[in-house]
Amino acid sequence: AFQHRLWPEIEKTVKQQVAMARMGIGDCGSGWQLFAEDGEMKMYRREEEVDGMVVDPLKAVHVVKGITGHEVCHYFFSPQYRYDWETTLEQMTVLETISDDTLMFHQIHKRIWPASQRDVVFWSHMRKLPNDQDRDGPDIWTVVNNSTEDPDHPANAGKCVRIFLTVCLLCQTRVIPPKDGTPLSRDNISCKITYCSVVNPGGWAPASVLRAVYKREYPKFLKRFTAYVKNQTKSKPIMY
Ligand SMILES: CCCCCc1ccc(-c2ccc(S(=O)(=O)CCO)cc2)cc1[C@H]1C[C@H]1c1ccccn1
User: Fold this and answer.
1) Does the N-terminal or the C-terminal CB of the chain have fewer CB atoms within 10 Å?
2) What's the rounded Cα separation, in Å, for the pair 188 and 67?
3) Measuring CA to CA, which residue among 121, 233, 142, 124 is closest to residue 195?
4) Does the Cβ of 229 fall within 6 Å of ligand 1?
5) How many angstroms does the Cα of residue 163 sit away from the middle of ligand 1?
6) Nearest 5°: phi and psi at 208?
């Protein structure tokens, strides 16, 4: 297939991000601290600063009944649904359709007082991965979003401060076939979701403001997004 200029970077980043997402939290010695918990959802962060700016890596793990990894990645990747679940989104533009599973976006997010408004340009790639642990187990699906440059959208040219991010959504479907051999239903499936993100807020913002924003926004985002996928899929055939 035609090699897009970004393809080598996409390949490398996807492999790297999937490997990191698959690594567990490890023991508390690994620096991950649990900062939010809600039922099956657990959110961890590491406190890290680059040039005095908070860039705390985040890792969330969640198990959601009744949906598959393919469905979670489909609704996360596809632009037509994003305004339904991404509450901090003010504007989203698809800059380029690189292939049917790879898009480039420009997003302007709502201003969060007292910080200035942010925007981001990133490529987004969705992929099915072989389940190398359990050969005949269901596939693993992932979406990786990674900041990139776009000559038509130079950083910090307008009113927004450009942020930089790397996000990996890794989904493993679990199927527990019913004993009595009846056909599979959504009661027999669940999805283990691992969401990893590192956001560099671009221009300076007070560490206390950023950490408060993340503490509020990330749990809200993951709960709202997964509830959205359950609602969208509940009366549709299962997409494996
Ligand atoms: C002073 C705040 C500076 C940072 C503002 C900001 C910008 C982008 C983002 C962001 C951009 C993309 C993604 S995604 O996972 O790729 C999905 C596609 O939208 C995710 C989060 C986050 C935040 C921070 C609000 C915080 C926040 C945290 C989770 C969700 C929403 N908002």
Assistant:
1) N
2) 10
3) 142
4) no
5) 9
6) -65, -40
Residue 8 alpha carbon to ligand 1 centre in Å: 26
Within 10 A of 125 (CB to CB), how many other CB atoms are there?
Answer: 22
Q: State which of 148, 163, 216 you would mutate to test the pocket of ligand 1, scoring each by most atoms of that ligand within 8 A of its C-beta.
A: 163
- CA angle in degrees (0–180, nearest 5) for 143-38-82: 35
Name residues whose C-beta falls within 8 Å of residue 19's C-beta, 6 or more positions apart in sequence. Answer: none
Q: In the predicted model, is pLDDT for residue 1 greater than 60?
A: no
pLDDT tens digits for 70-120?
A: 999 999 999 999 999 999 999 999 999 999 999 999 999 999 888 899 999
Vertex 110 angle, CA 32 and 123, to 5°: 65
What is the β-pairing status of strands 102-109 and 118-129? Answer: antiparallel
> What is the reported pTM?
0.96
The residue to which tokens 């970004």 are assigned: 6
CA contacts within 13 A on the Cβ side of 143: 23
Atom index in ligand 1 nearest the CA of residue 221 equals: 30
Per the structure block, which two tokens stand in for 161? Answer: 């401060």
Q: What angle do CA 11, 17, 20 make, to 5 degrees?
A: 140
Q: Which of 168, 170, 167 is nearest to 141 (CA)?
A: 170
Q: Rounded to an integer, what distance in angstroms lies between the CA atom of residue 12 and that of residue 162?
A: 23
pLDDT digits (tens, 9 = 90+) for 36-82: 999 999 999 999 998 888 999 999 999 999 999 999 999 999 999 99
In the chain, the N- to C-terminal Cα span, in Å, equals 26
